[in-house]
Design brief:
Blueprint lengths: L9 H9 L4 H9 L5 H7 L5 H13 L3 E5 L6 E5 L1 H4 L2 H14 L11 H9 L12 E6 L9 E7 L2 E5 L9 E5 L1 H8 L5 H6 L3 E5 L1 H5 L1 H4 L4 H13 L1
Parallel strand pairs: 3-6
Antiparallel strand pairs: 1-2, 3-4, 4-5, 6-7
Helix pairs in contact: 2-3, 6-12
């Protein structure tokens, strides 16, 4: 961990642990359910593995996370301690502040299909889908070729994200540009409006088309922002 601020102030002491570059985003992934190293890394793809390892060690030394062996395997996973879990409203609050007060338009450099789809994967309400296997293909024609096609495979309450064809019959195709999907994900464009205006094309299962607003949940940041707004009113 780098040298601290040299102050007794509790804020300074807290920032010593959680204020390093990338650390809040690592915490975001942990708070969203990431446990394994590769799961966390998928949410911060521009972060080097060496730096992620260092930040995780810093958080462990700070008492925010602990490493727990995986039974029957020669590996471990990361779990939030009570101190780490107590950071949830702080990290969510920062994200909501960014959503409400950082007005700069999303630049092309901010659009990342891999991060977006990894977050979408975690927000699929499997209970709102039919029984059995459901396969949904997302297509972003404007994204780089290697990041233009994605598949969600939902089965037995689990959602897997694939970047290559999983070989199953696709039940629903969703096609849009990356910016539109990102804006919808953040709650800046209503999903129904994007579909009605043709910004998002759906074709395949009529059942899945008609219930897309049920099983495709939006960003947890948007949900938190809505909740805070309702409580304020």
């Amino acid at each position: 961990m780098t040298k601290g601020y040299g102050q007794y102030c509790p804020l300074a002491k807290a920032i010593d642990i959680v204020g390093e570059r990338w650390t809040p985003l690592v915490l975001r992934e942990l708070l969203m359910g990431g446990r394994r190293f590769n799961e966390i890394r998928r949410g911060v793809p521009l972060m080097s593995p060496a730096l992620l390892t260092k930040r995780l060690k810093d958080l462990e030394r700070g008492g925010v996370i602990s490493r727990v062996p995986v039974p029957g395997k020669r590996t471990h996973e990361y779990q939030l301690t009570p101190a780490g879990e107590a950071l949830r409203p702080i990290i969510v609050g920062l994200a909501v502040w960014g959503l409400n007060w950082v007005e700069a338009r999303l630049g092309d450099e901010d659009l990342d299909a891999s991060v977006l789809m990894w977050e979408v994967r975690g927000q699929i309400d499997t209970a709102a889908l039919p029984e059995g296997r459901t396969v949904i293909q997302f297509s972003f024609p404007d994204a780089p070729r290697m990041a233009s096609l994605w598949w969600l495979v939902i089965e037995d309450g689990q959602t897997d994200l694939c970047q290559s064809d999983p070989g199953h019959e696709v039940d629903l195709y969703l096609e849009t540009d990356l910016r539109t999907m990102t804006e919808v994900w953040l709650g800046r464009i209503p999903l129904k409006k994007a579909i009605r205006d043709g910004a998002i094309d759906l074709f395949g299962s009529r059942t899945l088309e008609g219930t897309v607003g049920n099983w495709l949940q939006l960003s947890k940041v948007y949900e938190a922002a809505q909740d805070m707004s309702e409580r304020a009113n």
